[in-house]
Every structure is written in structure tokens, then in C-alpha cells.
Design brief:
- The chain is of the alpha/beta class.
- The protein has 3 domains: 283 residues, Rossmann fold (3-Layer(aba) Sandwich), CATH 3.40.50.620; 113 residues, Four Helix Bundle (Hemerythrin (Met), subunit A); 50 residues.
- The chain is 48% helix and 14% strand.
- It contains 16 helices and 15 strands.
- A 4-stranded parallel beta sheet has the order 4-3-9-10, sandwiched between helices. Strands 5-6-7-8 form a 4-stranded antiparallel beta sheet.
- Strand 11 and strand 12 form a beta hairpin.
- The protein starts with 6 loop residues before the first strand and ends with a strand.
- Bound molecules: adenosine monophosphate and zinc ion.
- Zinc ion binds next to loops.
- Adenosine monophosphate (AMP) binds next to helix 1 and strand 9.
Length: 487
């Protein structure tokens, strides 16, 4: 199997298709980014994590990926939010770009190669609108410019909406200067107090959809390999991007359209307008970043995912199991001198199985299932419970499987930390959350270490129980006492 084995579900055809890059070995990926008027919530974060892994895995597979994710920094929601805070709309947007970048880093999202902003793409947006007007698919009306849907017969080919039904459901809102209800704004005439730029139609600002057509063409190309976002973007945002780009540039806009499922809370899509949101930074205050990633990734990116506090706690418990396994394995490997020689079975089989899962439309849950089996094997080997009786063979097998974990880790953005550092951080957080007496625990641990040095085993056992009563479970390892918070 090679890179030609990657298959992706394409919204436009409704099928999984083999990935066929425009330029062999290279991929241009454009993901719709956040509208920066507030802090992002974990619903947004789920979608950004899905595409983070798409990019990570495609790079792992050897593609040279150009990854672009934009900021919508000119928008009605931003203008309205700025009215409340007294900042200018662009100041407020710049502030939330910085907040997003801090959150994205905390969640270990890859930094895109380019993160363009609408406010920095105005000349390209104006040029595209002019092109659409020149081609007769857009018209100016009192300083606004609209895309005329009836002039573009392919409209709705992505979302498969029924135009007649859409027309019946749409009204021209007061203040809009449209010819037909389905027409959508490419450019909006300036209103007092709003950010605006000079244009051939007077002062104004872009409509929402045109920005992504202009930014994708500027930073990826007029035809792009892959375009992503949450499924709420299929209509109207991506449908409109598609119409603008293809009508304006006269060529295919995008080969593969990928859309992620929603994160739901209490049975409804998490969204700011419904008010059922958990901010990403609040979630990251409670749970480790890799645990949150693990929670997102344990459901396929196209399926809905229900959020609950318990799901985060479960995900962190699972990560603790993984890291505890790795800690134990690393400790054993450091103490073993197995050298070169045969291993048991074929440790690289897990790698092949993992790749087969992810090649199949990024089946990350399938890949994590493969890893579960691998971790179970690592545990057996580290605990001496494996069927492999030859110690050197067992150690080499363990090293090879540990190597597989390290190889896969960048494709998922998981297991990237030192196991001891991760486990200590988790323990410190649990100590704080449960209000345990750290000073008392440390004092008893020191007493117990002294008792053990003096070979006072009864005293050591008494102190073990005393520690347990304080919420600490102690274990004796070649590296000395280790403790965790009682589960
Ligand atoms: P927005 O800032 O609202 O434009 O959203 C940024 C990204 O988050 C888009 O790709 C949306 O589709 C996605 N998104 C918004 N809400 C959710 C949700 N509840 N679950 C998954 N993705 C979401
Ligand atoms: Zn977009």
C-alpha cells in the first residue's frame, strides 16, 4: 500500500474517492477558520482538530501539504460585539485572533502555513467581485454588489438543495437591494461606524463568502485539492464560495470537499447562538490537551459527537493508561540490554493496520483501536506476562512496538510528551481538584523512603496505608517510590 491508497469521502459526490493530488506529492488544503468575535468553543475545536489530524496524517503519508486556515475578521457579529465593548471592530477581531492562537497552541493544533485575514485580502476580494460583475453573474445595486444565482446554472451542486424550495422560503430583507431572493451579497455598502474600504462601488466591505474564494485562490491556488469545515458550512457558505470561484475564475474550484460532524451538547449542536457552549480554554483548564484531542478523535470526524463532563474524564483516564504504559515500558527498556536480534511476530503490522484505517477516510477511531491492541501487548511485555519467554526477544519486541507508537504519534498529535512529565501534571491537577494535602503526602513519602532504606518493612507498609488514607497510592519501582492519586 502506498500513498495512492488514501481515500476520502467527498461531499460533492457523496462517495469515498481515491485522493488524486493536482500536483503529484503535493496538496493544497484550505480550512474555513474562526469568526473572531469571541472565544472559540469546543464545537469549533472539534472541527479544527479533525482537520489538524487530516493535515498531520497526509504529511505523515509523505505529501507536501500547504495548509491555509483563515480568520474572518470583518463580519456583522464582530461589528456588533465591538459596539458592546467600545473597541473598533478591527481591534476586537485582532484581540480574538490572539486569544484563538493561544487556545490553538494549547490544544496542540498545527500552525497553518498561512492564516490570512479578510482585512488583509481586500484588493483580491475587490478584483474577484469585479470579475464576477464583468462576467455578468453579479450586479451592483446602490453600493452593494450581489451574485445573481439565476445566472449560474450549477448553483446547489454541492449542497444539492432544491432551488425552487429555496426560492419559496427566501424573502428579500428590508435594506437589501437584491433582484432575486436567492442572490447573496459579495460587497456591502458602508454603514456609519463600520469598517470600510474604497472600491469601484464606493466605500464598503466584503460579504462573508467571497473572502474564502479570494483567500483560497491567493494562498493555495484557483483550484485547490481539499477544502474543509463543519457541515453547517455546506450551505450557504461553501455553495456560495463554489459559485463565486468557478464563475469568477472559470475553472474547477476544489477537488475534495470535506465536512465534519457537529459536537452536540444536550442533543443540540453546540453554538453560541443557542448558548450551550463550553469554551475551549475552560475545557483545557479542566482536562489535559491530549485527553481533549483523544475525546474528539475517538469518534469518526463525520459522525456527531455528544459532549459530557464524564466523556472528558474518561478520555483523560484512557490517556493516563497510555502514558503509564509508556512510562513503564521506557523504564524497562532503559534497564535492558537486549541488543540486536530477532523480535516476536511482526511489530510493524500495527503500523500497517493503523495506516489502513486512516487511509480509509481518516478512520481515526479504527486507528486508535489498533493502538489499543498494541498497548495491551506492551503492558503484557513490560509486566512479564507475555507469551514471549525469551527476555531479550521480549525486550526487542517491546522496543519495536514502542517505536511504532513514536512513529504514529505526530500523525495524531497524541503521546508527544514525556510520560513522566504528563503523568506528573495529571497528578498535580488531581491533587488540586480533590483538595489533597500535598505537604502531608510528601512528608509521609519521605518517611517511607527512609523506612525502606532501613529495611523497616512493617513501618513501610503502615506508611503505605497512611498515604492511601490521604488519597495517594504508592508503588515501588527500580527508580524508587512512585505515587498516583487513588483512582
Ligand atoms: P465559526 O467561527 O462559527 O465560523 O465556526 C468555525 C468552525 O467551527 C466552522 O468550521 C464550523 O463549521 C465549526 N463549528 C461550529 N460549531 C460547531 C459544532 N457544534 N460542532 C462542530 N463544528 C462546529
Ligand atoms: Zn470559508
Amino acid at each position: 500500500m502506498g500513498v495512492e491508497s488514501v481515500r476520502i469521502f467527498n461531499t460533492v459526490t457523496g462517495q469515498k474517492e481515491p485522493l488524486a493530488p493536482l500536483v503529484p506529492g503535493q496538496l493544497g488544503v484550505y480550512v474555513c477558520g474562526p469568526t473572531v468575535y469571541s472565544y472559540v468553543h469546543i464545537g469549533n475545536a472539534r472541527t479544527f482538530t479533525s482537520f489538524d489530524v487530516v493535515v498531520r496524517y497526509l504529511r505523515y503519508r509523505g505529501f507536501q501539504v500547504r495548509y491555509v486556515r483563515n480568520y474572518t475578521d470583518v463580519d456583522d457579529k464582530i461589528i456588533n460585539a465591538a459596539k458592546e465593548t467600545g473597541e473598533s471592530a478591527l481591534e476586537l477581531a485582532a484581540r480574538f485572533v490572539r486569544e484563538f492562537e493561544a487556545d490553538a497552541k494549547a490544544l496542540r493544533l498545527l500552525a497553518p502555513d498561512v492564516s490570512p485575514k479578510v482585512s488583509e485580502t481586500i484588493p483580491e476580494i475587490i478584483a474577484l467581485v469585479e470579475q464576477l460583475v464583468a462576467k455578468g453573474v453579479a450586479y451592483e445595486s446602490q453600493g452593494d454588489v450581489y451574485f445573481q444565482v439565476s445566472r449560474w446554472p450549477e448553483y446547489a451542486k454541492l449542497s444539492k438543495r432544491n432551488l425552487e424550495e429555496l426560492r419559496a422560503g427566501e424573502r428579500v430583507a428590508p435594506g437589501e437591494q437584491k433582484r432575486e431572493p436567492l442572490d447573496f451579497a459579495l460587497w456591502k455598502a458602508a454603514k456609519p461606524g463600520e469598517p470600510s474600504w474604497d472600491s469601484p462601488w464606493g466605500k464598503g466591505r466584503p460579504g462573508w463568502h467571497i473572502e474564502c474564494s479570494a483567500m483560497a485562490a491567493k494562498h493555495v491556488g484557483k483550484t485547490i485539492d481539499l477544502h474543509g469545515g463543519g457541515r453547517d458550512l455546506i450551505f450557504p457558505h461553501h455553495e456560495n464560495e463554489l459559485a463565486q470561484s468557478e464563475a469568477g475564475n472559470g475553472c474547477r474550484f476544489c477537488n475534495v470537499w470535506m465536512h465534519g460532524g457537529f459536537l452536540d451538547l444536550d442533543g443540540a449542536k453546540m453554538s453560541k447562538s443557542l448558548g450551550n457552549v463550553v469554551r475551549l480554554r475552560d475545557a483545557l483548564g479542566k482536562v489535559d490537551a491530549e485527553a481533549l484531542r483523544y475525546f474528539f478523535l475517538s469518534t469518526h470526524y463525520r459522525s456527531p459527537l455528544a459532549f459530557g463532563d464524564k466523556s472528558l474524564a474518561d478520555a483523560e483516564g484512557r490517556m493516563e493508561y497510555f502514558y503509564e504504559t509508556l512510562r513503564k515500558v521506557d523504564e524497562k527498556l532503559a534497564a535492558s540490554k537486549a541488543g540486536e536480534g530477532p523480535v516476536d511476530g511482526d511489530p510493524r503490522r500495527s503500523l500497517t493496520e493503523f495506516e489502513a484505517a486512516l487511509d480509509d477516510d481518516f478512520n481515526v477511531p479504527g486507528g486508535l483501536g489498533v493502538l489499543s491492541g498494541l498497548f495491551a501487548e506492551l503492558n503484557e511485555l513490560a509486566d512479564g506476562k507475555s507469551k514471549v519467554k525469551d527476555k531479550a526477544v521480549a525486550a526487542r519486541t517491546m522496543a519495536a512496538l514502542r517505536g511504532v507508537v513514536s512513529t504514529l504519534s505526530p500523525a495524531l498529535g497524541l503521546f508527544e510528551e514525556s510520560p513522566t512529565a504528563w503523568l506528573e501534571r495529571r497528578r498535580d491537577r488531581l491533587v488540586k481538584d480533590r483538595g489533597l494535602d500535598r505537604a502531608a503526602i510528601d512528608a509521609l513519602l519521605a518517611e517511607r523512603a527512609a523506612a525502606r532504606t532501613a529495611k523497616q518493612w512493617a513501618e513501610s507498609d503502615r506508611l503505605r496505608d497512611a498515604l492511601k488514607a490521604l488519597g495517594a497510592e504508592v508503588k515501588d519501582t527500580p527508580a524508587g517510590q512512585q505515587w498516583r492519586v487513588v483512582g
